[in-house]
Structures are given as C-alpha cells and as structure tokens.
Design brief:
491 residues, 18 helices, cytoplasm, alpha/beta, two-stranded antiparallel sheet, mitosis
Length: 491
C-alpha cells in the first residue's frame, strides 16, 4: 500500500528531518541517549546528501503512541533525549498540512486561502522565523520543504540556548547549505549563536571552512571559544567585518593564523577586514593582546572593551597608532585607564563620535579637557562614576563639544548647577542627560536645562534632591522628555 500511494522511503524521511531535530534539540538527559542522538544525526546527514527531491516528513510528539495516518497505515515513532524526531508518513491528505492539525472545523474558504498562497508569500512569512522554527516548517510537507530551503532565507543563521548542541547544528546546517555547491556555502553572511555554551572551537572551524563569504559573526557568551578558533575564522573568512566575542573569557587576542600570514601577498600585508569588534568581558585581554589586535585590525571603526580590567593607558596608545579610523570606543569599567589614556584617545581628534569611560575612577577634569579640546565632533560621552570630574570639566566640554547629544555624568558628586547652566547654554541639541546620584544638583539647574534644551528626550535624576515643581517645569517645556526620578510625589 505504501508503494502504491507514493509513500516516501525511510532514507528520504531521515534526510529531510534530521536538520530540524539537531537544530531544535534540547539538553541530553543521559550519556547513552546523547550517543544515540548523534548516531541518528550522522546517518541522516549521509542519506540527505544523495537527495535530489525531498520527501515529506512529519513530526509527531512521542507522548502520543499509536499515531496512525488517515488511511490506517501505522507509523513508527522514536523518542531520543526528549527531542522531537521526524517520522515518515504517507503523503498528507488534500488540504491538510499536518496530520495532527485538524482543519475540518474551519471554514472551507480559510483552508483554500492557506493552500493558494504563492511561494513568494510563504518565503516572506518564513523570513520572520528563527532558524530552528524554519527547520521545523521544512518537515510539514514537500512544498514547505522546498520553500523553507529557499536560498533567500539562508543568508543568516540565528541560534540560541545554553543547552543547544551548537556544533552539531552548525555542522548539519552548513552541510545542507553546501549541497548545491559541495564543500562551500556562498550564501551565508551572518551567524549568531550567542549564549550557546556548547559551542566549541570545532563548530567555529566547521563554519570557517564552509562559509568563506561570512561577514558577521556573533558568539557572545560562548565560554568555550578560544584564540585558535577566532584565528581560523578571520583567516578563512576574509570579508568578515562584524565580530562579537563578548563574554568569551578565553579570547585574549585576534590575529591571522601563521599559514594565512605566509600566503598573503606583501601588498595585502597582515590586515583583517574587521570594522566592528566587541570584546566586552574578555577579562584576560591585556595590553600586548590589544597591541596585536590593533596592528592586524587597522580598519576598526567600532571597538568595545567594557570590563577588560587588565588594560592600561599603554594599550590605548597602540589603538591610536594603528586604528586611526575609530569612531566609537568604550573602555568603561577599565579601572587602570587614567588621564594619560584620554590624552592618547584625544589624538583621534574629529573622527571620534562616541566615548565611554564610565567608572574609570582615575579620570579627572584634565582628561576631559584633552578630549573636549581635540574631539570637537563628539556626540556621546559616558563618564558615569568618574568622581574626579567637576564643573570646570563640564564647562570646558560644553564650550568645545557644542554638538553633544548624549551625556552621562551620573555619580559625579562634584558637578553642580553651575556646570549644568554652562551645559544648557552651549549644547542646545542635547537629547539625553543622566544626572543620577549627583548630590549637588538642585531644581534650579534642571529648570535652566529645560528652558534651553527643547529637544531633550530622556532625563535621569534618580537619587537627586530636586523638587516636584522643578520636575513639572521640565515636563512643561520638554513634552517629549521621559523623566526617570525617585520622587514619589511626581507622577
């Protein structure tokens, strides 16, 4: 009966469904079950590579035994580590996309609308799905399989979850995407597997080998990633521009592999195309590592080094020497950065637009004067927690950076109404201002700001001694402003 009714073979069912099982897998409960799951995935991968036209594969929850199709032919199910495993069924009856979805109670017109949607509309709908959801849709029916693997939907892979088998998911996905062009995927440009603790160097190496056109890679919070994997990616993916390794505590440097350096022509040098680099919470990063990064990534425009506590002023000097195009820089919570480091940063001059030095306790008015004097096009400054900044520093900043749009001087107890007055009379384009825990700020300073900065959109005065009348004055003059306060009498 299966042959007469066009029932797909078992190997085809495995090929079209293994990807979804691997991508949407959860944490294995026992070691024995984990081994079974890996074996199933590898068998499915091998069978899938011989397919030219996929067969319909449908998912059935393992908790419902005895599931049968509409023609009375029984189906077998298997439960591996609590995952949903695709089962091979006879072709679905007309107007049904899934044997467990009962559309009989719905109006006939609604059923017809779903079936008559053109492929272009389905591609548009599928474009809003995550990678694991897209793989599950590929298991519904033959048509959805073909639509789900449309090349336009696979320019990006986004996976998340601490229990996800990221290495296996990347291996299966890249193998499927390389089906038409063996051993290389020219479509994939973005991969985001943030928070996947099971991602290892092996998974990144597979990705680097198969996806030479990769432009964006995000592996934030993947603690098992090391320098070797990052070296492989930047060496085998020459077009990589965006790299996020925040929270990868084992990453201490970014450089080309020795083999890649030897093969490069003298004209190309040893340069990497990265423009955006986020190394937040890379605690082991030191000045020497930053020196190597700066020497190889000379095209950097955005660099974030938050909470890299081992960095000093010497590391910032290397940045200025090699990365003269920096527009955004964050060294917040780098406690060893001082006024000497800001003197080096000031050498970026008008190119610098964004600077965060939050909680750099060694920074004083001297460092602020350096930045204000030479970086006249600065738009954003976060100096929260820099207790050495006074009204003199704010005044100098306001007079030399008149285009400032966002300023955070919270927890700067030496800043008072005098500094705010100078700020309001020079920075008319100010949109965001944070004065949280500024003990010397009163309602008078806020009123001066509100009377001159009409475009103010956010004001933080939490833990400040300001009256309700002053807050109401701000609300009347800056109607679009969101006020964050701690005064229970103001609403």
């Amino acid at each position: 009966m299966g042959a007469n009714n066009g029932k797909p073979s078992g190997s085809e069912g495995k090929g079209s469904s293994s990807i979804s099982s691997d991508v949407s897998s959860s944490t294995d409960h026992t070691p024995t079950q984990a081994q079974k799951n890996v074996a199933t995935s590898e068998d499915s991968d091998l069978s899938m590579r011989t397919l030219s036209t996929p067969s319909p594969a449908l998912s059935c929850p393992p908790a419902r035994p005895g599931c049968q199709n509409g023609r009375g032919s029984s189906t077998s199910s298997s439960s591996v580590t609590g995952e949903t495993v695709a089962l091979v069924h006879a072709p679905p009856p007309p107007r049904l996309t899934h044997p467990l979805i009962r559309l009989a109670a719905r109006p006939q017109r609604e059923q017809a609308r779903v079936e008559r949607l053109p492929d272009a509309c389905l591609v548009r709908v599928f474009s809003f799905l995550r990678t694991d959801q897209l793989c599950r849709c590929a298991r519904v029916c033959r048509r959805w399989y073909n639509v789900a693997w449309d090349p336009r939907l696979w320019r990006a892979i986004r996976l998340a979850g601490a229990g996800l088998h990221a290495d296996r998911a990347l291996r299966v996905l890249t193998r499927r995407l390389c089906q038409d062009t063996p051993n290389v995927c020219l479509l994939l440009e973005t991969v985001a597997v943030s928070g996947c603790r099971r991602l290892t160097d092996r998974g990144l190496y597979t990705l680097a080998q198969c996806c030479p056109e990769l432009r964006r890679l995000e592996v934030a919070g993947c603690h098992n990633i090391s320098n070797e994997a990052v070296f492989d990616v930047v060496s085998l993916c020459p077009n990589l521009e965006h790299l996020d390794v925040s929270g990868c505590s084992k990453v201490t440097c970014i450089s080309l592999t020795r083999e890649a350096s030897i093969q490069l022509s003298p004209l190309h040098g040893k340069q990497i195309s990265i423009r955006y680099l986020d190394m937040t919470d890379c605690f082991a990063l030191e000045d020497e590592g930053l020196h190597t990064i700066a020497a190889h990534c000379t095209r950097l425009t955005h660099l974030y080094l938050r909470r890299c506590a081992r960095l000093t002023d010497e590391g910032l000097r290397y940045l200025v020497i090699y990365c003269s195009s920096l527009r955004e820089l964050s060294v917040s919570d780098c406690r060893c950065i001082s006024d000497f480091g800001l003197r080096e940063i000031a050498k970026l001059e008008a190119r610098l637009r964004y600077l965060s030095i939050a909680h750099c306790g060694r920074v004083t008015d001297v460092g602020i004067r350096y930045v204000a004097r030479y970086c006249g096009k600065l738009r954003y400054l976060n100096a929260r927690g820099c207790e050495g900044i006074t009204d003199h520093g704010v005044e100098y900043l306001a007079k030399h950076c008149a285009r400032l749009k966002s300023l955070d001087i919270g927890k700067c107890p030496l800043v008072s109404d005098s500094g705010l007055e100078c700020l309001a009379l020079n920075c008319f384009n100010l949109k965001r201002l944070s004065l949280k825990s500024c003990e010397s700020i009163t309602g008078r300073g806020l009123q001066i700001v509100a009377a001159n900065c009409f475009d103010l959109q956010m004001l933080n005065v939490q833990d400040c001694d300001v009256s309700v009348e002053a807050l109401r004055f701000v609300k009347r003059h800056c109607r679009r402003c969101v006020i964050e306060h701690s005064n229970p009498a103001f609403c």
